[in-house]
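Thread title: Can someone regenerate the structure for this chain?

I was given the following input by a collaborator and told the matching structure tokens would be attached. They weren't. Posting the sequence so someone can regenerate them.
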Amino acid sequence: MDVASGWCTRVSGTAANEADINQTAALLHGQEEAVFADAGYIGADKRPEFEDCDVDWNIAIKRSIIKALPKALRDWAEPVERALAQVRAWVEHPLHIVKNLFRHKKLRYRGLFKNTAQLHTLFALANLVIVKKTLLAQRPA
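Best answer:
Regenerated them for you:
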């Protein structure tokens, strides 16, 4: 997802037993300056496919690690993690549209190819919903 526009730029569909971190390379296009990810992507910056990437990795710290910190460090770490979480929440907006506006909450298994195709369509429509106000504002009266 692009932070500046809020658009979803990549969608990847996998089996449920596939870890999120395994799809990191498929979700990045190579021109990112910063990556914001949840704790499921811990260690992504150390993977061999990203050795030559000059990207600022902002991966959430596990909650148990923050709770184990001394109070002085925890008081410093929690606002930082909150700020990073707010950026991650902003880029989750297309997912909110797909789940709540298009009511795609339960996934019926129709095969990985069909499910992924449906997700591509839903996220493309979510992108249109996001830019709807901008497109209508540019239309001459």
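The helical segments are 24-27, 63-68, 71-91, 93-101, 112-138.
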